[in-house]
Amino acid sequence: MSTSSIPTASTERFARLYDWPKYWAECFGVAPFLPMSRAEMDTLGWDSCDVIIVTGDAYVDHPSFGMAIVGRLLEAQGFRVGIIAQPDWQSADAFKALGKPNLFFGVAAGNMDSMINRYTAERKRRSDDAYTPGGMGGKRPDRCSLVYSQRCKEAWPEVPVILGGIEASLRRIAHYDYWQDSVRRSILLDATADLLLYGNAERALVEVAHRLARGEDVAGITDVRGTALVRKDTPEGWWEIDSTRIDRPGKIDKVVNPYLNVREMDAAEKQRRDAAMYGVPNTASESEEASFIPHPVRDRDCTVIRLPSFEKVRNDAVLYAHANRVLHMETNPGNARALVQKHGDLDLWLNAPPIPLSTREMDYVFGMPFARVPHPAYQGAKIPAYQMIRFSVNIMRGCFGGCTFCSITEHEGRIIQSRSEESIINEVEQIRDKVPGFTGVISDLGGPTANMYRIACKSREIEAACRRPSCVYPGICSNLNTDHSDLTRLYRKTRELPGVNKVLIASGLRYDLAVEDPEYVKELVTHHVGGQLKIAPEHTESGPLSKMMKPGIGSYDQFKKLFEKYSKEAGKEQYLIPYFIAAHPGTTDEDMINLALWLKRNGFTADQVQAFYPSPMATATAMYHSGKNPLRKVTYKSDEVQPVKDPAQRKLHKALLRYHDPANWSMLREALKKMGRADLIGDGKNHLIPANQPESGQAYRAARRKNTEQAHRRRTGKKILTQHTGLPPRDEGGKPARPGKKSRTPGS
Questions:
Q1: Nearest 5°: CA angle at 652, between 651 and 656?
Q2: Of 51, 211, 225, 727, which residue is most buried, by most CB within 10 angstroms?
Q3: Does the global pTM surpass 0.90?
């Protein structure tokens, strides 16, 4: 490598992952698995680890698991990386198992927030854990990364601790905690860690590791994008803006128009816009698409927005909603500014979001030598999460949907980062050739959203300036390229590979985007649906949908027509499985009744339903906590959003989704009478629930079976043939009857 390509102090913040010079320990080569014991270290010839990753998940060396991604990435940079997975947190002993790391501890709770992993939406303790061998629950503590960080400091006080992963990412700022029903301060302070990396943090992680390796003090690493740190005060040379100036419970600063045609701007307007923007695409000539690397504008590069302090947002829910709104306005890597929030006498400082990875960098990350199986220490014990994804391929990152209840955008960002066809095909071939038990079926080609692969804004300039929270709500942006041809071509190439019999799409589909490209829908329905396709309308009523930033049910109907048309043309009987959320902020009892009636008319009998789960930092969580709508200007007099907090009302909303279950009928009868909707009680086809309650267990089962049969006939026009074999019921055409929908993983 030439010296001109080595990152320097002026360029390293935007250095490509593969441009860094290797650390000296690269001479040890690639480990078959990152070591989890001193015996493995001895076998590798290591006297110590440079970095030790502590994780709340079992160690699976697969690119769907965070510890494997960052561990292999650091290994590729030349560092010796050890793993401490699901340690006993009752003392610091387990955190000393691999000795003292030379550079730092990297701490993450795992692929899920530990509280969502451990508790249901009703705050009940779960008995299982999909990321643990045998599915056993109780292998991680509450607020896992916080506890692990404290234990690392107890074991080796002088070693820097760096937090990462989704739990730290979503708790990087003062946040509402559903389980304590209060606002907690940033996890960085409670964990007593030295630095927090948020989002998909490969770029920040590599830079921090190399800077620590060359002797920098972790306290001096303050300028890395995608990091949170603690400061005493604002550094010299920075311009501080009070957040209430940007979004006063009345906004005064003009936001750049994302729809402006830059060719039609006069010189003065272009100069003003250039000063307001934080980025333009890199013009460097590469064999890949231009990297998303901003050109620093001094004013924005040295501007920090001061949010209301932790103490203020803890005591004032309106200020909490305001702070949440401003934070979400500053998430575009192209124009985001740093944020600061006082916690006591300290400042929590959030640098601007990380620069998305280019396609070549994504290929580099996913091209690491993963073993693709769990560590041998588990002796073949089944890890449910691995069983689900072992034959799947992650083809992209990010989501521009902006659903308010979802944490994908807050963690991964809204800029889609896609891998190349060659990289994806190579991974499919590795699965075919190396993964035990492969039967020729790829279980998923997807990611956070199945059909956002290579979809982006038509203009890099507009993308870098835009502050819209969603590219598809309230309608699809005219600047969004909705062409699915790259994805269609990828599907075709993958299923044509020798040894690949079937390629399924299991990731959630953005159906309002898919209908913009009927050719894609035809390809999907004809070749890549395994009998059922999951999609997420979430609701039918405009009130809750507007708080979710989801399209109206008309988009679902439009997709359903295409789905049924192409299924019929292919000679296949296939089913749409729609997901719905109960008790979302802004949902009334009447809204849930209307949804239940829609479900009955369309023949859906949901066995398990998802109640709204307030995850940290989500916009819908701010609605739940504050009763305000951060999608609009937040003031003390602004419109209220009615949260569904009362346990009895939450239970009612879930029961309405399960209108067909006799166990819910007594509650529903009482509720419908109180609401003046006794007209929905009776035995007619337009009634929601019957007038009489089955008394015996046999009558109860008969009532449920009758409801299932009626729902199936409404959906398919076919009768279910009753069987007593213990096998799933089949219709008169001999096909398995699928009248209902399956549950989804809580917190997904």
A1: 120
A2: 51
A3: no
